[in-house]
Amino acid sequence: MRRTSRPTDVPAGPPQPGNLPHELNRFVGRAAELAALAAALESGRLVTVTGVGGVGKSRFAAHAAARVPHSLCPDGVWRVELSTVRLPELVEYTLAEALGLTDHTTRAPRQVLVDHLAERRLVLVLDGFEHLVDACASLIRDLLRAAPGLRVIAVGRRPLAVDGEQVFPLAPLTPADAAELFADRARALLPGFQLDGRTLVDVLEVCRRLDCLPLAVELAAGRLRVLSPPQLMERLDDRFRLLRGGGRDLLPRHQTLRTTIGWSHELCTPQERLLWARLSVFSGSFDLEAAEYVCGGEGLPADDVLDVLDELLAQSVVVREEARGEARYRMLDTVRAYGAEWLDGLDDGRRMRRRHRDWYMGLATWCELDWFSPRQGEVASRIEAELPNLRAALEHCLTEPGETHLGQYLAGTLWFYWAGCGRLSEGRHWLDRSVGLDVEFDDGDICSGLVGEDGEGYEDTEFGASRLKALWVLGYVAILQGDTVPALAALQECREGAERTGDATALAYAVHRTGCLALVTDDMPRAEDLLRTALAGYREIGELNSNVLMGQVELAMALAFQGDLAEAVALCADVRQVCEDHGERWTLAYALYVLAYAQWKEGSYAQARGLLDACLAIDHEFNDLLGTVLSMELLALVTVEEGDAAEAAVLQGASARMWSSVGLPLFGSAHYNTPHERCETQARQVLGDARFAELARTGEQLEHDEAVARALSRGRRQRPATTVPHPARLAEPVAHKREPAASRTWKGGETAG
What we know:
Elements: H1 31-43, E1 46-50, H2 57-66, E2 77-81, H3 91-98, H4 109-117, E3 122-127, H5 133-146, E4 150-155, E5 165-169, H6 175-189, H7 197-209, H8 214-222, H9 229-243, H10 252-266, H11 270-279, H12 288-295, H13 305-314, E6 318-323, E7 326-331, H14 333-345, H15 349-370, H16 376-399, H17 404-413, H18 415-420, H19 424-435, H20 463-480, H21 484-501, H22 504-520, H23 524-541, H24 546-561, H25 565-582, H26 586-601, H27 605-621, H28 625-641, H29 645-662, H30 670-687, H31 689-700, H32 704-718
Parallel strand pairs: 1-4, 1-5, 2-3, 3-4
Antiparallel strand pairs: 6-7
Helix pairs in contact: 3-4, 4-5, 6-7, 6-8, 7-9, 8-10, 9-10, 11-13, 11-14, 12-15, 15-16, 15-17, 16-17, 17-19, 17-20, 19-20, 20-21, 20-22, 21-22, 22-23, 22-24, 23-24, 24-25, 24-26, 25-26, 26-27, 26-28, 27-28, 27-32, 28-29, 28-30, 29-30, 29-31, 30-31
């Protein structure tokens, strides 16, 4: 068959920075539309691609965005997928996530986005916004006003109705392009498939009957595994008559797409239809184990899910994607919505959503325990991949009557992700919501526990324990954001509740985090007293995990600030050993920071730099912005002490930019600020005020990854040939070392906090 349009497979110009997914199969047709969209984007800053579901809006917009000239978007092309977002207040978090922003402050997410985009020139592809029109319209309006270099391609079934918007209705493919799309997908199944003779006539008729909608055409092509083109024609006749209908106010194309998906649904076996419906409870992607647990049972044994899922993959009902070398699966949004309607028709939606909740409650519980292990990095990646499903589980718990305690449990259990992986702002959102709701007690007192769909209990044995955990985690997150008043209120409520109910675990955590609050507000004697009390409490109950070790590091910091470097080093050397024994790396980074601080105080700059390099690399890997910026601040001081005032000024400038996304710079603490002030004073004396300001501005212009890479590369250049001594050696002069809070001889295990 002769092509009727020029090839559009290869993007024009060099590849753009950003997060556009790689195209897994060939883009077919739409040459004229691509040129028209390019012209519209050059003349305006907001183009909204509209059209019926299944017309190929998302693929078209992404392909067009990849071809935008570099001169229009030197800062890249960034795609934001909103189809899995259900709440308007999460739109800004999702956009920040897509742009790779990490913000630990109490600033409104919209302000964070405005500040980030104000001086940048990039293209934003906002996909799947139709169920969040008001929230997206307000956000895009503000961003376009604040960021003159921003261009937006919005993709949805209706316009945003924003000033300056150019609406770009996307029509179905031409018959020739639709037939070529059919043939291209068919050849993936049947390599010898050719469009010629009678086959061409049949395929053109199939495409015409399907209104040349790309989704419908691809679903039809997927049926060539079992049906010939003439058989497709026959089946279309039957299914159109069977499934035509719906509300009279529906557009014909909506009816046609529904008929097409319904036709594909009718060709499925009963088990395939059942799995299709049950998979609709997932938000975003999922893995096989989750599908087996959530969807197995009552007509579909869990052992059969793999084979049935394989058939749905073959029929393009489910798509496969790779993540960290593992297979994950996703349903197209239109296909998922159709399955959700069938699930509701089966009157099984509530049970499936409970099973979905149970799976992700279990996943979060396992990940919290496994955080204190060599699999810490794997845990961080897993939670990142499952975030849309965890959000769905949290929303279910916080809106379903009688399940508030489950939402509190889940929000608290994810402390390691909120605090350890740069998600403070979103964690604060869920924690505030969960503790702001009243728990419904069945008998007015204490429930028997958290029981899942299959009757298996969770870790808590009382409703109140979930709330207490959410409270201390809320206090912790607020402290890291520099929001001390709400932090103190949450921790006081937690402590009072723990004392009233005799919950020794919650009490230890409340005391611990109150000590952390005293540390960052410069009350070192109180911080020392509270942290020692908390660590004694942990020993009493046999608690050992990353939080406990962090308490020991925080105690060491309080001691170091009071001049007791020997005991501080001894405590952190012990933490380092326990971390190495358990494969823990997140807390290890903070222990290395304190050890580096001690080395700097002793004038051992090369050793301090070696420790800080290791610390910074770990913090950056986990996206822990707080740990990163603390390391950068101390590195700047070490750098000026080594005689390079210019580089120290650059690092201070880079740190200043990071603090704007973390919270109150150096917590507003005089103790944490002392190294910063000393560095700045020395650098200004060498460089002069004007040169210092110029170099600091250079640092402020560095992107986060660039700043970290620069700091680490200098460390590699400056590192001495000798090996940095193990910090445990620094503890040798200590005459009476106190028993460490986290000891490998403790009676406890890896219990979760």
